[in-house]
Design a protein that fits this description.
43% helix; alpha/beta; 269 residues
Length: 269
């Protein structure tokens, strides 16, 4: 952010994004997201209290510019009520929850959802996307500047579009792990243990993702379905049925969707 026009010693009035440099923030929520964002915001030069729980928040502390709630979606409304009157700006880090969940805070509210898995305080957010939103121009600008301060690429997502945005994120990240777990299960049928499966398949997964990023899904697609190699796909299907029959509906659905992506539906089963 730009240098402050006034430092904390100069004034106790909350700063607006237009004049903000070093913000005075509080992070509510002691989970991985709260810990990771607290560390990242401090590294970016902001004054951060927390992560803290809702009880006893800011006892004996100075004026806070913004509060960021890093709590489970179901707890956002209660947390917002708990910080009412504490700051001009209150935000949440949920990808799917609407900003109206923050109404009880009685503040200008914003959303800041890093499009990244946050495993802990050392998570690097630089280069990842970040969904932002705000109920006022100032709140939206605050979210945008915070995202930029953390090295993220901000993208404004309308409230009504948040479920679709979050579903896309889940498909790209969470469901990828479900697929890799399925791959481990089928690999076991070839006598390959989970650790070895990850070691052997990992470079393939990384290259596939890199090719998707560079070329898009259709151009990056390889394998028997893409080639229209029906015999190989049938042999794969038989192996799945023999080793992990519970995965057969998933396999069939993925073959069908991959055929559609390749542009030759019906050439493989």
């Amino acid at each position: 952010m730009r240098e402050l026009e006034r430092t904390a010693a100069d004034s106790t009035e909350p700063r607006t994004p237009a004049t903000a440099g070093r913000l005075r923030m509080a992070i509510v929520g002691r989970g991985r997201v709260g810990g990771g964002l607290s560390a990242a915001l401090r590294e970016a030069g902001h004054g951060v209290e927390g992560p803290v729980g809702r009880a006893g928040l800011w006892e004996g502390s100075s004026v806070i510019d913004a509060v960021l709630l890093c709590v489970p979606d179901a707890e956002i409304a209660a947390a917002a009520a708990g910080v009412a009157g504490k700051a001009r700006f209150v935000g949440h880090t949920s990808g799917a929850t609407r900003l109206s969940a923050l109404d009880a805070a009685g503040a200008e509210v914003f959303g800041l959802h890093p499009l990244q898995t946050i495993a802990g305080a050392d998570t690097d957010l630089r280069g990842c996307g970040c969904a932002i939103a705000g109920t006022t121009a100032a709140a939206l600008e605050l979210a945008r500047l915070l995202a930029l301060d953390l090295g993220m690429e901000p993208a404004e997502i309308a409230d009504e579009d948040r479920p679709a945005y979050h579903a896309a994120a889940s498909i790209a990240s969470n469901f990828l792990l479900t697929l890799e777990a399925a791959a481990e299960s089928v690999a076991a049928g070839a006598g390959i243990g989970s650790d070895d499966a990850r070691r052997l398949l990992g470079p393939l997964v990384r290259t596939t993702v890199d090719n998707w990023l560079a070329l898009g899904p259709r151009a990056a697609l390889t394998g028997p379905v893409a080639r229209g190699d029906r015999a190989t796909v049938e042999a794969q299907r038989a192996a799945v049925e023999a080793t992990a029959p519970e995965l057969l509906p998933l396999f069939d659905e993925l073959v069908e969707r991959t055929e559609a992506l390749a542009g030759h539906v019906g050439s493989a089963a």
